[in-house]
Amino acid sequence: MKLEEVLMTQKFRDSYHKVCLNVMFSGIWLEEKISSTLKSHGMTNAQYNVLRILNGSNAPLTVASIQQRMLFKASNVTRIIDKLLDKKYIRKEMSKVDKRVALVSISAEGKTFLDTLTPRVQEQERKIMSKNLTEEEAVLLSDLMDKMRD
Q1: Closest CA to 82 of 104, 115, 60, 49
Q2: Under 8 Å CB-to-CB from 119, ≥6 apart: which residues?
Q3: pLDDT tens-digit profile of 49-107?
């Protein structure tokens, strides 16, 4: 689907304006596609992101540290943590060094849930990306997006 069709326009200021809109639109589009898989398991993109961050950490993390590592920086991490606590996917305890700091880690239930969900998300990602992109094109696109952010 061409950006011109989605936005119902044929005119962009220039190529840089078009690529900015295309990257933003594509990110939103991809997030919506992945969120359908997550929603069917009672998860949001932000909750899944927090679980993956905690799973990849060798030690409990502070809320601030989780926030720094998140894909979506505007997310309300405290609320996300509360939801994950309700689901028993994470543990939260107060630091013994500084009682004002909460340390968050993934629980055994969270690991099990993530082990079940992650292959489904990866399958969805691969299905979406491989539909119209070759492996080489995916590498090129990823490299170009890295270059854009440098």
Answers
A1: 104
A2: none
A3: 999 999 999 899 999 999 999 988 767 999 999 999 999 999 999 988 888 899 999 99
Residue owning tokens 């679980």: 51
Q: Is 57 exposed, middle or buried (0-12, 13-18, 19+ CB in 10 A)?
A: middle
Residue 115: the pLDDT is: 96
Helix (H/G/I), strand (E/B), else coil: 90:
strand
- Count how many residues are written for the chain: 150
First-to-last alpha carbon distance for the chain, in angstroms, is 28
* Beta carbons of 81 and 110 less than 8 angstroms apart: no
Comparing CA positions, the residue from 72, 36, 74, 33 lying closest to residue 52 is: 72
Angle in degrees, CA 29, 27, 137, rounded to 5: 100
Q: Helix-strand-coil percent breakdown of the chain, rounded to 5?
A: 65, 10, 25
Is it the case that residue 27 has pLDDT exceeding 70?
A: yes
* Tokens describing residue 122: 């990866």
- How far does CA 114 lie from the centroid of its chain? 14
